[in-house]
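Minutes, project huddle
Topic: does the predicted pose make sense with zinc ion bound?
PN asked that the exact inputs be recorded in the minutes so nobody has to dig through chat later. Recorded below.
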Amino acid sequence: MRFFHSIFNLFYPVLCLTCGNHLVKNEYLLCSSCRHKLPETDFCNTPNNLIESTLQGRVSIVAGTALLYFRKKGIVQSLIHSLKYKNRQEVGIFFARWMGNQLKESERFKNIQGIVMVPLHPKRYKQRGYNQLTVFAEELSKELEIPVYKDVLIKVGKFSTQTKKNRFGRFEKINERFHITDNDRLNGKHVLLVDDVFTTGATLEACASELLKTAKLQISIATMVVSDY
Ligand SMILES: [Zn+2]
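Predicted holo structure (tokens), as shared on screen:
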């Protein structure tokens, strides 16, 4: 916990990540003006939204949501890039607080008991040095007052995943394989599976299918952003 606190202080931003203006009280990472320009989805309160309709017939989930639409060359892309490749974990904190508030107010995400992160391949983890979802999941866990189930799901198989064009003409990862390590902890639970970006849903489908080998497990999905093109 002490370790996490010191990391948190390190992540305390003073200037807006996008426009560089000084942040005032109750602003975190982005100033209000930049934040209001973000393309919100309102999926939290929208049944049969893009995530749910994309996964329908592929894997069974209770509900799915994302905070923002992914837009190339916009603020959203720069947020995700900073988090994923520049280790700017304050972006994860920013998304987690926002997501936490939305989930707590939503009738569709009641009774979630724990969080599971999409894992990185061990070689990718070694290469990058961190999983970009760890701080996000820890902060979301504090917001929702539920645990993160760490290491219950691992990524296995070849490191470099091939991609191929799917029936929508978009590239998706194939042969992504995950393995569940601890069914007992998940037995009978309703878990929130989290990732940064939802594109074709292939990764989340592979993770959810593996997790659903657990008895009486229910899964909802939350990602920071969703690509709708
Ligand atoms: Zn700003």
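Observations noted during the meeting:
- The longest helix spans residues 90-105.
- The mean pLDDT is 90.
No decisions taken; revisit at the next huddle.
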